[in-house]
Fold Quercetin 2,3-dioxygenase.
Amino acid sequence: MTIEYATRYRRTSRIPADPGKPYFIEKGQGDRAHLFGDLITIYAGGEQTENTFNFFTVEGPKGDLIPAHLHTDTYEVFYVTQGAVRLFVEGTDGEQQEKLLTPGDFGFVPKNCTHAYRMERHHSQIVGVAAGPGGTFERFFENLGVPAEQLGLPHQPVVPEPGKFETVPQQYDVRFLPDHQWRTR
């Protein structure tokens, strides 16, 4: 049996809003959102961890580069469990790097480092953790994209209106850099 809760974000959620309350979530049954061609599933966020970290997965098909962005107060971890994901990172010194991550590979992006990623194989999956002094950003996904009740990838990519990129991210320590150029391939 799985317990469902009403939260300020959703009518039903398997994530309790109360910090310090143990819980379990079956595979794929966290709070889901569609953004671009991906399915994001949140398993733990700021409300459960006193804003110290979040834990989520991103699943997607082979696709386009996710827009370059940075987090001024948040460190982000990319751990690939399926498929292949190319991670692009620019350090605060301007040095750019890219790395193809396959199952078991790990990527770390410090705060203030511009980054982006691209799913390189169909059915790729990233386990993500984000933490920092500014709180967590997990509700960004459903506010820029759309909440998803069903399992699975979106039937059509969810591409936000350009103006939404400027308003929603400010609340969640995500700053998009639409003119950023990657010098790597």
